[in-house]
Amino acid sequence: MAKEKLIELRNIVKSYDGEVVVDHMNLYVRENEFITLVGPSGCGKTTTLRMIGGFEKPDEGEIIMNGKVVNDLPPHKRPINTVFQRYALFPHLNVYGNVAFGLNNRSYQELVDFYTSEVITEKIKVLYPNFNTAKEPSRRQIRKAINALIDDSVRNALKMVNLEGFEKRKVDSMSGGQMQRIAIARAIINRPKILLLDEPLAALDLKLRQNMQYELKEMQRKLGITFIFVTHDQEEALTMSDTVVVMSKGVIQQILSVKDGGGIKITTEEYQTPKHNKINKVGIEPDVTVDLPEDIDNVLNVPEDKDTQLNKAKEIVKK
User: In 3-state terms, the chain is what percent helix, strand and coil (to 5)?
Assistant: First the structure.
């Protein structure tokens, strides 16, 4: 059974100073999908991410979430959190304070709605063993229960990113990989339906970046939420993603569905190749097909473990 569409972009256009950076983009993202936008600098991938997050408004077209147009909805009202390339951590707060920041800055009523009355009541029973359930809890009891729930949420988020025991550490004493995990924990504690990641691994060294690729994929699987990832690294995209969207000059060049076994195939459902692309369909092996645009070398540099398939495909195309 196909998963529901969570986000849909319809004929999205965005320009800066008269230059079109996203040109009539049509794309949808399903629930619990790990989708990556990949392409060279200036191809429009980060602008697309920023429009989804509400940091930019499209000049034309509609951004639809859960069946509603959200073009004018501000970022904090969208079911989205963002992890930026530079992490944007607060140096005056320790690890715990950074992760708890979003929840600590919500109003009393927002926190009641976030945790729900039922969960808060159960926590009150734990904190106050003699609590009389026939009576309404006091505001002080509710506040204490919410604080305890925030503490649980922080510790669970840090456990998810393998940073248990680092609560009191200053963020400027952490490594690049640890700071990236803090930023992710700060995002997931808010229980977003969608997590946007704007090249969050770019500043890490090669070994750490490779380790984090697998950690992010496993984290996405455990959380069961949608990840929209932006990168210029094609191998990174193929390692983590369910779907790879290849962009160039503001246009989607191709959409690849990445199989669990590491192969590549083209999705056919509801996606159409832009008319200006000449496509050569070439069978590589059973159930795996690679579509090759004319400018494949400029659009997508397939990683080393795909070289054999790619060379074989090109030889068949030449014939």
Answer: 40, 25, 35
CA distances from 54 to 48, 63, 121 (A): 10, 10, 35
Given a contact cutoff of 8 angstroms between Cβ atoms, the answer to whether 274 and 294 are in contact is no
Could you tell me the pTM of the whole model?
A: 0.74
What is d(CA 252, CA 169) in angstroms, rounded to the nearest whole number? 43
| 147 and 240 together in one domain | no
3-state secondary structure of 30: strand
Residue 287 within any structural domain of the chain: yes
The answer to whether position 112 is within a domain reads yes
- Burial of 252 by CB count in 10 Å (0-12 exposed, 13-18 middle, 19+ buried)? buried
- What's the distance, CA 12 to chain centroid? 19
Q: Which two tokens stand for residue 173?
A: 């004493």
Q: Give the pLDDT means over successive 10-residue stretches in the chain (319 positions).
A: 82 93 92 91 91 94 93 91 83 94 93 94 93 89 96 93 91 86 90 89 75 82 89 84 90 80 40 35 31 43 46 46
Q: Is the dihedral of CA 133, 138, 144, 149 positive or negative?
A: positive
Distance of CA 148 to the CA centre of its chain: 28
Residues 290 and 218 in one domain: yes
| Same domain assignment for residues 74 and 104 | no
Domain that residue 28 falls in: 5-79+192-304
Distance of CA 214 to the CA centre of its chain: 14
Q: Is residue 314 part of a domain?
A: no
Q: Is 235 exposed, middle or buried, given 0-12, 13-18 or 19+ CB atoms closer than 10 A?
A: middle
Query: Is the domain of 199 the same as that of 296?
Result: yes
Residue 179 covered by a domain: no
Residues 6+ apart with CB under 8 A from 72: 57
3-state secondary structure at position 211: helix
